[in-house]
Amino acid sequence: MSDEALTSSDLILERLTKLHPKLIDLSLDRTWRLLNSLGNPERALPPVFHIAGTNGKGSVSAYLRAALEAGGYLTHSYTSPHLVRFHERIRLAGRPRSSAISEQDLSRLLDECERANNGAPITFFEITTAAALLAFSRASADALILEVGMGGRLDTTNVVAKPAVSIITPVDLDHQAFLGNTIGSIASEKAGILRPGVAAVIGPQVDEAFAAIEAAADRVGARLFIHGQDFTAHEEGGALTYQDEAGLLDLPLPRLPGRHQIDNAGVAICALRQAGMLPLEREAIARGMREVEWPARLQRLTTGPIFSHLPPEAEVWLDGGHNPAAGRAVAEAMADLAEREPEGEGRPLILICGMLDTKDAAGFFAPFRGLVSHVETIAIPGADAGLPADRLAAAAQEAGLDATPAAHLDQALERVAVAAGRAMPRLLICGSLYLAGHILKENA
Question: Which residues does UniProt call coiled coil (predicted)?
Answer without folding.
Answer: none
